[in-house]
Design a protein that fits this description.
The structure holds two protein chains of two kinds. By secondary structure, chain A is of the alpha+beta class. Helices cover about 50% and strands about 15% of the residues of chain A. In chain A, the strands form three sheets. Chain A has a five-stranded antiparallel beta sheet with strand order 3-2-1-9-10. In chain A, strands 6-7-8 form a three-stranded antiparallel beta sheet. A two-stranded antiparallel ribbon of chain A has the order 4-5. In chain A, helix 4 packs antiparallel against helix 11 and helix 14 crosses helix 15. Classes of the chains: A alpha+beta, B alpha/beta.
Chain lengths: ~400, ~170
């Protein structure tokens, strides 16, 4: 008997509400229907009524977590349209801010994944590690979130020289903490049992569905906009693109954890290179924006962000298209969720990091008699926790027998 | 595949039906006629091994300009394929049967700009509600001023009703 389970659509605190309708046979999901657009804010249209310089403030509010990536892609689109070069110092500041953002985003995801699995210690730890990072972001950009650092032609704020030792100190600490966290995840038999082979999305599918970021790289699909389409200072630093091969939830977690080390490496290189640049030289002047079109892309924590702008020579864009990575990645759930259990479905949809988290409600609907019961967010998390506990007990019993 | 090679192969295959322009070493634009639109996307995706990134539509007085961005990652450049779907009812062939990743972006273009994609497996609006007026395309710049408003959803349960197969409470527009 096939049942339908609707999940969602939204809770006001989520930036990305979604509606999932799971078609299940017993515990197993056979099909998933997804509906997005529950908080369509009309940002593209709003942007067409703002000046070129005002738009970054708007687009950084698309996502609270990626509030550096969207403006980054937008300013690259405008710079592509105007064909201008950004001062070297501004390039480094942009990369530093963007990589600090990646670190805090990945840590946030690890914490949430830990919570989903029933590891609230991981959740608490990552939050503790992430807090000083936000303090540094505040010192560098002026804000913990919504950094307002990007502007067409450069950045709005210079990096204060006295902040550099603080950032380096933070990076040293964070490297150790991330190492601890990575080992805790990679060595834990319960996490292995709970996430390995779950929500597999293979390389061929990644290409067909246009999967991006850690979702694609966890399946060995080798794309990274920082390396493939290097913008600003990314061609002046060296880093590795982290790849795994299985494309399951475990590999997605591993990719994100290892990317943190690469981000730390990139920031260190930028901090040493920025010393050779002239303080205060942070923005190229843009006299006018010519008619035409341009697009820019940046590898956000979740995958490639893409912005397209068109100008008629005026002071506002006449078209601004925004494509966030989750738009492509959420579509991959159509393939990765079927075949798994309901307890895993929440984990798999969360593994693409769509900002869909634990506040959704679930209704279980029996198709034949219309009987309906509604599960709350707590129920989904409880289902997931029960599964983890069961695995823990099984592993403990096996260890006892040996 | 190198840029010059890609340009040469596209020109060889499609001849006068495409126009190729290059704005910078990282941006190649291919303007195609409607009839070869899907073939061009397939050629780039399957034979030349481009990646599918995303699409965009731009509204114009005479029609809607539809474009897809197909990067060549190893060689660090983008090929943008473009075509023009004429008004009053812009219609194009869908590339979703070739590239499933284009599913949602085509649905978005349909609901925002009324670009009807033939052969699309599931051409429903993707972002806005199912109860929107049928001839209302928000990004198409020819709004009528007498559009009925979408009904107020005073009832939080309406979606579950639909899923359960019952008619939604309240009145449809």
């Amino acid at each position: 008997m096939v049942k339908k389970i609707p999940i969602g659509p939204f809770h006001p605190i989520l930036e990305e509400p979604e509606f999932f309708e799971l078609h299940v046979e017993g515990e197993r999901v056979v099909k998933i229907d997804q509906t997005i657009g529950w908080s369509h804010r009309g940002i593209e249209l709003l942007s067409e009524h703002k000046t070129w310089d005002q738009v970054p403030f708007l687009v950084e509010r698309i996502c609270g977590i990626c509030s550096c990536s969207h403006p980054f892609a937008y300013v690259k689109a405008v710079e592509d349209l105007c064909q201008i070069e950004v001062p070297l110092r501004a390039q480094f500041i942009r990369v530093i801010a963007a990589e600090l953002e990646r670190l805090h985003s990945h840590l946030l995801w690890t914490g949430l994944a830990g919570h989903f699995l029933g590891y609230n210690t991981v959740f608490m730890w990552t939050w503790k590690f992430r807090e000083p990072l936000l303090d540094v972001l505040e010192a560098v950009t002026g804000n913990r979130n919504h950094y307002a650092v990007m502007r067409p032609g450069g950045v709005r704020r210079d990096l204060p020289a006295e902040e550099i030792p603080n950032i380096l100190k933070l990076l040293d600490r964070l490297e150790k903490e991330n190492d601890l966290l990575t080992k805790a995840i990679v060595d834990d038999p319960v996490i292995h049992a709970r996430t390995k082979g779950v929500g597999v999305f293979n390389k061929t599918m990644c290409r067909l569905y246009g999967a991006l970021g850690p979702t694609a790289r966890s399946a060995g699909y080798d794309i990274d906009a920082r390396r493939d389409h290097p913008i600003d200072a990314y061609d002046k630093v060296s880093f590795k693109v982290i790849l795994c091969e299985h494309g399951d939830v475990f590999d997605k977690a591993v990719v994100r954890q290892l990317e943190n080390f690469e981000s730390i490496k990139i920031i260190r290189q930028c901090l040493s290179l920025i010393a050779d640049t002239k303080a205060g030289d942070i923005c190229a002047e843009i006299r006018e924006v010519p008619p035409g079109e341009g697009f820019g892309m940046y590898e956000a924590p979740r995958g490639e962000v893409f912005h397209y702008v068109r100008s008629n020579g005026g002071n506002m864009p006449i078209r601004h298209k925004v494509r966030a990575p989750s738009f492509n990645n959420i579509l991959t759930n159509n393939v990765s969720v079927p075949g798994n259990t309901v307890a895993d479905a929440g984990l798999i949809t969360a593994a693409v990091d769509p900002c869909y988290s634990c506040t959704e409600r679930v209704g279980v609907v029996d198709r034949r008699n219309g009987e309906r019961r509604v599960l709350t967010e707590a129920d989904i998390v409880r289902l997931s926790h029960e599964r983890t506990d069961e695995i823990r007990r099984r592993l403990a019993a096996e260890a006892g027998r040996e | 595949m190198e840029r010059e090679e890609v340009k040469r192969r596209i020109a060889e295959r499609f001849g006068a039906k495409v126009k190729i322009a290059e704005r910078s070493p990282k941006r190649v634009y291919v303007y195609a006629e409607n009839e070869i639109w899907v073939d061009l996307a397939r050629f780039l995706f399957e034979e030349l091994d481009a990646r599918f990134d995303t699409g965009a539509a731009v509204d114009d007085r005479e029609g809607v300009e539809v474009m897809f961005f197909m990067p060549f990652d190893r060689e660090h450049y983008y090929v943008t394929i473009k075509t023009f779907a004429a008004k009053p009812h812009p219609t194009l062939d869908s590339i979703t049967p070739v590239i499933p990743g284009a599913n949602w972006i085509e649905r978005e273009m349909f609901e925002m700009y009324e670009v009807t994609f033939r052969n699309h497996p599931d051409l429903r609006p993707v972002l806005r509600s199912d109860t929107r007026p049928a001839d209302f395309y928000p990004a198409k710049r020819e709004m009528k001023d007498n559009h009925p408003l979408v009904r107020n959803r005073d009832d939080g349960d309406w979606r579950s009703d639909e899923v359960a197969g019952r008619p939604p409470k309240g009145k449809n527009p």
